[in-house]
Amino acid sequence: MTAEGVPIWDRFPSHQRLCVNFTLTCNIACDHCIVESSPRRRERLSTDEVRATLSEAWENGRRHVTFSGGEVFLYPREMREVITWARELGYVVDVESNAFWARSDELAREKLTPFVEAGISGLALSADIYHMKYFPVERPITAARTARSFGLATEIQFCRSHHRERDEEIIAALAAAGEPYVVLELLDRGRAREMLQVWRGHRVEELSECDDLTTTLHATGDVYACCQLDIGVDQMKRTPVFLGSIRSADSDAAARDRREQLVRAFYDPESPIYFRTMVRQHPLFQPLDEESFSNICTFCMRALSDPARVAALEELLHAAPTAAS
Ligand code: SF4
Ligand code: SF4
Predict the structure, then answer these.
(1) I need a surface site. Which of 108, 137, 175, 303 has the fewest CB within 10 A?
(2) How much distance in Å is there from the Cα of 110 to the middle of ligand 1?
(3) Dist. CA 39 → ligand 2 center (Å)
(4) What pTM was estimated for this model as a whole?
(5) How does DSSP classify residue 221?
(6) Given this model, what pLDDT does residue 123 score?
(7) Ligand 2, closest atom to CA 225?
(8) What are the two backbone dihedrals, phi and then psi, of residue 93, each rounded to the nearest 5 degrees?
């Protein structure tokens, strides 16, 4: 949270935010990890790729970047380079970490110092049963306390499990330390998919809004219109949420922009192609009203993996300004 109590992601509107999943290597392998990071994963961006993406995104109006992974504290030299570059461009920079390094106040200061000197503004951390399988909740608490002593905004993210007692213990430890936390929804993707075989379905009218439209560069060089990646299967790549790869020779920035605009419009209540309007009114989308979805992202993959539906959205979006003029 910021000093004003605002979640650190919400300091900037989504169209100004960029997320860079720098690496898939992580020192641990949480059961719920949506990007399926682990010590065995090797995918990583080069610092040149990150610099180029930061520059292009700055030109396109992005002003805030979060470096995530995997675990970025495994790569302090590379992080220092890209954070410095981002700051020189003018970005506000946050990093996400599992805080494995915060074994004591002294060690936490030592590990955080290079990031602070490079110019980060915020640190997002995790405390839940999935992370605390590997180390105690005191680590994220120590990391958050140390980060605030440097003047950083901090945020501890908590994800519920079906082990209610253990969840309550972690929440009690956070409360005893005076650490606020935000609750995240467990998504049925990545490794969490296996845990969520049984799930109450929701009709479209019951689904939440999509509030994770942050352009995200993944460690493989792929770019997505949101940060809730679903990359263990191909489905996301069959939707316009997948924007292409920075490693592709025929990478087309204009095509990427068009796809991203379409996804943003699909989740914008003011747009003519807002998803609830489409499900109420358009014959290609109306059948979705008969189905159940575990959450908005499951609906998203189902709705947008049909090329006919995407073509209809493109046509309507393209027609909208003319109709209004
Ligand atoms: S959830 Fe975070 S800490 Fe856990 S394996 Fe994934 S990247 Fe690593
Ligand atoms: S609803 Fe779609 S665009 Fe939004 S976060 Fe979920 S998968 Fe991403």
Answers:
(1) 175
(2) 22
(3) 27
(4) 0.85
(5) S
(6) 97
(7) 3
(8) -120, 130
